Amino acid sequence: MSEPIRVGIVSTSWWADLMYLPSLQNHPSAEIVAICGRNRARADEMARKYGIPHVFTDYRTLIAEGNLQALIVATPDDLHFPITMQALEAGLHVLCEKPLALNGGQARAMWEKAEAMGVKHMVLFTWRWLPHLQYLHHLLAQGYIGRCLHCQFTFLSGYARSHQYEWQFDPQRGTGVLGNLGAHTIDLAHWYVGDIANVSAQLRAYYPRVDSNGQPFAQTNDAAVLAVGFANGAQGALQASAVTHLGAGRTALHVALHGEDGTLEADVLYDGVTPREPQLRGVRHDEKGLQVLPVPATFLSEETRADFAAGQSLKLFSKQPVGSRQFINAIVADQPISPNFYDGFKAQAVIDAAMESHRTGHRISVG
């Protein structure tokens, strides 16, 4: 066997602790050799937990001295562009969190640079790897609903129902719920239906927030509604909210696709960050109503189904060749990756258009 891919990560967040580090720790072709975080004590703690030999507090030093082959960028959004561009310049393969950047110009530059350097690049749009949503994609490709006419993607949560500062709602650091939950709805719409050609959007900031000094600041959106037109003529409604009262820690994702020959729906409800087993429904031809569609074992193994039942659905990302594990596999086998920086750029272009639509009150073509 060849030597493991030497991986570094820029993040010491709860998400790195939940998703990336467990996913890579037991991958036979990956070795996490370095971690970077501004808080040295936190970085040391994470390094001890996962047996990571090298700790950095500056990503520039990590990239220059970490002896890396691949980098995971899981920082706040405003740092995605500078860290990724420096990593690409150093010839590293890069996995970056979504949204890819703060705007479409940055995202395009990241995608074009990655392609020019000939490295592997991925965006972690996690929902693409959920077995039920992968099966839905398969059914669409098999013509279950025929030509798609219209669709709905709704992602609702209540994590921002407070007035406290959160970097996602600081326009200098993030693009609000539109870039957080909304990026997932945009990516799923692109994956299931096709390119989004135009957008009409209404964005809201329902909860006034204060900064670390207790002072109000100009904030970005915590709720968003987008009416989109697809290049193939389909229509769509996309909604994302971080201020929906669903009960403590509860979040809901709903997908509905309506075509000439049928309808497909999927619902995911989860507490905290652990989804319950989703429900997939469909109706077509002369059937009388929506029926629950069982997911075949080729998409949903008995082990994964048991993990869902035990409230351990995220184990999927530390057992199956998905997410960051797929990233490593693609490096080793020199295979293409999806979703990649191009997909991240496509989502970012829609986010840009939505913001411009809200600002001007007009429908905006997606660049």
Write up this protein:
It is a single chain. Helices cover 34% and strands 25% of the residues. With 367 residues, the protein is α/β, with parallel strands linked by helices. Helix 5 runs antiparallel to helix 12. The longest helix is centred in the last third of the chain and has 20 residues, at 341-360. It is globular. The protein starts with a strand and ends with a strand. The relative contact order is 0.16. The model has no long low-confidence stretch (mean pLDDT 95).
Question: What would you say about this model in short?
Answer:
By secondary structure, this protein is an alpha/beta fold.
Helix and strand succession? Answer: EHEHEHEHEHEHEHHEEEEEEEEHHHHE
Percent range for β-strand residues: 25-35%
Q: How many alpha or pi helices?
A: 12
Which sheet architecture does the biggest sheet show? Answer: 10 strands, mixed
Span between N and C termini? 45 Å
Shape, per Cα inertia axes = globular
Amount of helix: 25-40%
The low-confidence parts are none
Number of strands: 16
Mean pLDDT score: 95
SS-based class: alpha/beta
Looking at this protein, list some descriptive labels.
about 375 residues, alpha/beta, ten-stranded mixed beta sheet, six-stranded parallel beta sheet, 12 helices, 16 strands, globular
